[in-house]
Amino acid sequence: MSTHPEPLQTGKPNQQIFADTLLAFAEADPSILVVTSDSRGSGRLVAFGEKLPRQIVEMGIAEQNLVGVAAGLAAAGKRVFAVSPACFLTARSFEQIKNDVAYSNQPVRLVGISAGISYGALGATHHSLHDFAALLAVNNIDIVAPADNLETQAVVAAALRHPRPLYIRLGKKAMPTLHAPGVQVEIGKALWLRCGADLTFLANGETVAPAVEAAAQLAGEGIDAGVLSVHSLRPLDTAAVLEAAQDSRALITVEEHSVNGGLGSLVASLLMQRGVFRPLRIMGIPDEYCYTGSQGEIFAHYGISRSGLAAAAHQLLAGTEPVLTGPSLSVAGH
């Protein structure tokens, strides 16, 4: 188990850690290539391009070509990272991911940057609230959403060893330190931040931090809440999920994704098929085009915050219905 330090220390955006870590590996290995779609700046890859100009391929705003070229380079023996905004990478080039990468079994590392609602006020066209659901329906591609800088650094190293296609989902917010130094991160193995006899939050990506904050608040309110960082959706750490269900009275999944087809759906399906019955709430973006605002405002509106998650925990343990509260925001187009 990893124990997070108190207080949480703010680090860098996971995208920055990804770029810095990959550059360090690529300087020692010329077979590592980055393919990008006019996203060097947003992907924090400017330094990579300046230092290793022969190891970066710029495709322009052409995500379908990006994935096809990445698959071809992987077939030629290159260790390829295809970097593009998650909203476009997993929608516009979905067919190429399905056929050129997954079906063709090319070990491309697809990196979806500015994922979830990182783009905030740019609205639904730039949000990626579908990517888990879409890629979970495609065979032969693993899916990882690291929570903090340490998880991200370890995921980059693991990706270079990974034999299968892989999707890495990254946001652009500076993330707090959640793990103690030296934490062992393995694709397919969830990480316990704290155990809880009353309730466990199962979260991934940038929603793990508010889950940790909510658990700390609940501890002061007499509720023993645990936090499990489920960074890998595929392969899902079924043993850890079942352990959480066995050891806690209730579960809350938290994700920066639609409530349909992501982490919550995986957990619910696993528990039902194994005959494990626990009160469960899926926290994410409901079945609607979400409100316009910053990531923090949208999180607060939908209860993906310290206070919102703590309130959801109280409601779930009491058997009452959730009440979503948040700032007054405007719906795009209204």
Describe this structure in words.
The protein contains twelve helices and 14 strands. The chain has two domains: about 10-175, 3-Layer(aba) Sandwich (Rossmann fold); about 190-320, Rossmann fold (3-Layer(aba) Sandwich), CATH 3.40.50.920. The chain has about 325 residues and is an alpha/beta fold.
Please give a quick description of this structure.
With 334 residues, the chain is of the alpha/beta class. It is built from 12 helices and 14 strands.
Name the descriptors:
334 residues, alpha/beta, Rossmann fold, five-stranded mixed sheet, 14 strands, globular, disordered N terminus, disordered C terminus
Into how many domains do the coordinates divide?
2
CATH topology description of the largest domain: Rossmann fold
Shape summary: globular
CATH superfamily of the largest domain: Thiamin diphosphate (ThDP)-binding fold, Pyr/PP domains
Number of helices: 12
Summarize the biggest pleated sheet: 7 strands, mixed
Topology:
Layout: E1 10-13, H1 14-28, E2 32-36, H2 46-51, E3 56-58, H3 63-75, E4 79-85, H4 86-89, H5 94-103, E5 109-113, H6 131-136, E6 142-144, H7 149-161, E7 166-169, E8 174-176, E9 191-194, E10 199-203, H8 208-220, E11 225-229, E12 232-234, H9 238-247, E13 250-258, H10 263-273, E14 280-285, H11 295-301, H12 306-318
Parallel strand pairs: 2-3, 2-4, 4-5, 5-7, 6-7, 10-11, 10-13, 13-14
Antiparallel strand pairs: 1-8, 6-12, 9-11
Helix pairs in contact: 1-7, 3-5, 8-12
